[in-house]
Amino acid sequence: MKKQPKVIRYLDAVEEVLYFGWIDGTKKKISDTELAQSLSPRNKKVIGQN
C-alpha cells in the first residue's frame, strides 16, 4: 500500500498564517499537479496603516 503525501489545503494554510500576521504570496508551479505557495510575515510598517 502506497502512503499518501501529506497535504495542507490552501484555505487551511491561509487561515493559519493570517492568524499569526503573515500573508500568502506568489504561487509557483512545481509539476502538472502541484503548486508551491510562498508565505511570509507582513511588513511591520504596513500593519498599522489604514
Topology overview:
Blueprint: H1 10-19, E1 22-29, E2 35-41, H2 44-47
How would you characterize this protein structure?
By secondary structure, this protein is of the alpha+beta class. It has helices spanning 10-19, 44-47, and strands spanning 22-29, 35-41. The protein has a two-stranded antiparallel sheet. A hairpin with a 5-residue loop joins strand 1 and strand 2. The longest helix has 10 residues, at 10-19. It is elongated, with a radius of gyration of 14 Å. The N and C termini lie far apart (53 Å). 0% of the residues are buried. The model has no long low-confidence stretch (mean pLDDT 81).
Please describe the structure with a list of short key phrases separated by commas or semicolons.
single chain; elongated; 50 residues; two-stranded antiparallel sheet; alpha+beta
Largest sheet: 2 strands, antiparallel
Number of domains: 1
Number of helices: 2
Shape: elongated
**β-strand number:** 2
Mean pLDDT: 81
Supply Rg. 14 Å
Uncertain segments are none
Strand order of the largest sheet: 1-2
Alpha-beta classification: alpha+beta
Q: How helical, in percent, are the residues?
A: 25-40%
- Termini separation: 53 Å
Give the H and E element order. Answer: HEEH
Strand content: 25-35%
TL;DR of this structure?
The protein has 50 residues and is of the alpha+beta class.
